[in-house]
């Protein structure tokens, strides 16, 4: 058994896609929010669910160069294509695979999530250069995979690329979940990823109707999901790789490592990279920013240690300088933000 961070666990070596996610080295390419399946536990946000939008990590995408820039900024070694269901926009998805492979080379690892059991579309993905595919088998088929379209597509796919199943762990589906794993290893697929079921803004009411609840007041994880996943792995000697990924792992390890990689490439000289990968800097806010800028320029402060932020109408400045200077009529803060495209503010402290 391989004990991983934040309660995650695997009975064997991780799938290649998961290894790179653990490093924060995977670009998350959200190909579309469109999906033909109506999973009651779908956690997608209202801005993405059932909408044909495209994102690379937190960045909205309008052209191929947007994707490329984000991939470079996080020093990515690969991409995970997700949705919605990327097979709903198969031409777009095939284009992205070819585009990324052509730019970064064959060693750039690309995996994809889908719920669509289509051998024709799997062949298109394989021909484009996809390295790894993960099928989301609907809950109604967990106990009867054999004879389904998913059995057919899994058998077909495993001869073309690394093939797995990826599903959330529903606490009341123990017997069906074990049956699914048994049937899947009989097919000879490469791995099964079990994810902790989570509450989100969009699935909250649906999960409550199924009598699920959070495991603690500080977690979005569903009570019983993690314990069941770990018990299934620990109590069974599966011949197939079975990997459990916790919700905390995605935030504290995968996301944290990815933003650290981006922070190294986007941080300005006046920004301090924290141990968590966030950016710390000072800001000045006042009614007359033009006069404030002139005041700073008269102080002989190096030009690369402050600048006017036109988008947010403020001055950004090195925090170690801001602490020492007086700016009459202005408000001074120390601000912490994610280095992501949306620059989400974490905290601000008045100085």
Explain the overall architecture.
This protein is an alpha/beta fold and about 350 residues long. The protein has two domains: about 1-260, Aldolase class I (TIM Barrel); about 265-350. It has eleven helices and 17 strands. The strands form two sheets. The protein has an eleven-stranded mixed sheet. The longest helix is centred in the last third of the chain and has 20 residues, at about 245-265. The relative contact order is 0.13.
CATH topology of the largest domain: TIM Barrel
Write down the Rg: 23 Å
Name the CATH class of the largest domain: Alpha Beta
Mean pLDDT: 96
In this structure, how is the largest beta sheet organized? 11 strands, mixed
Low-confidence stretches: none
Provide a count of the helices. Answer: 11
Feature tags:
11-stranded mixed β-sheet; 6-stranded antiparallel β-sheet; 23% strand; alpha/beta; elongated; 351 residues; TIM Barrel
Brief sketch in words of this structure:
With 351 residues, the chain is of the alpha/beta class. The chain contains 11 helices and 17 strands.
């Amino acid at each position: 058994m391989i004990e991983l961070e934040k309660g995650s666990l695997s009975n064997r070596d991780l799938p290649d896609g998961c290894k790179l996610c653990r490093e924060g080295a995977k670009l998350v390419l959200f190909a579309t929010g469109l999906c033909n399946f109506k999973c009651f536990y779908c956690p997608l946000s209202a801005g993405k669910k059932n909408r044909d939008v495209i994102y690379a990590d937190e960045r909205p995408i309008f052209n191929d160069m947007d994707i490329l820039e984000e991939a470079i900024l996080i020093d990515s070694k690969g991409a995970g294509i997700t949705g919605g269901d990327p097979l709903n926009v198969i031409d777009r998805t095939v284009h992205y695979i070819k585009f990324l492979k052509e730019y970064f080379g064959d060693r750039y690892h690309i995996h994809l999530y889908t719920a669509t059991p289509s051998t024709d579309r799997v062949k298109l993905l394989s021909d484009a250069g996809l390295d790894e595919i993960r099928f989301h088998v609907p809950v109604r088929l967990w106990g009867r995979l054999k004879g389904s379209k998913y059995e057919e597509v899994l058998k077909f796919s495993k001869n073309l690329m690394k093939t797995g199943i990826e599903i959330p762990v529903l606490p009341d589906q123990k017997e069906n979940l074990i049956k699914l794993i048994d049937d899947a290893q009989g097919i000879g697929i490469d791995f099964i990823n079990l994810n902790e079921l989570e509450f989100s803004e969009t699935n909250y009411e649906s999960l409550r109707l199924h009598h699920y609840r959070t495991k603690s007041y500080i977690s979005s994880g569903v009570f019983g999901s993690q314990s069941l996943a770990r018990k299934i792995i620990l109590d069974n000697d599966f011949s197939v790789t079975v990997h459990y990924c916790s919700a905390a792992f995605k935030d504290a390890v995968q996301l944290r490592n990815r933003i650290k990689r981006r922070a190294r490439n986007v941080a300005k000289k006046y920004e301090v990279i924290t141990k968590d990968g966030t950016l710390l800097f000072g800001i000045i806010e006042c009614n007359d920013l033009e006069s404030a800028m002139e005041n700073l320029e008269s102080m002989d402060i190096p030009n690369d240690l402050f600048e006017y932020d036109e988008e947010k109408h403020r001055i950004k400045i090195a925090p170690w300088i801001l602490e020492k200077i007086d700016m009459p009529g202005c408000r001074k803060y120390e601000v912490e933000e994610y280095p992501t495209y949306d620059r989400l503010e974490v905290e601000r402290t008045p100085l």
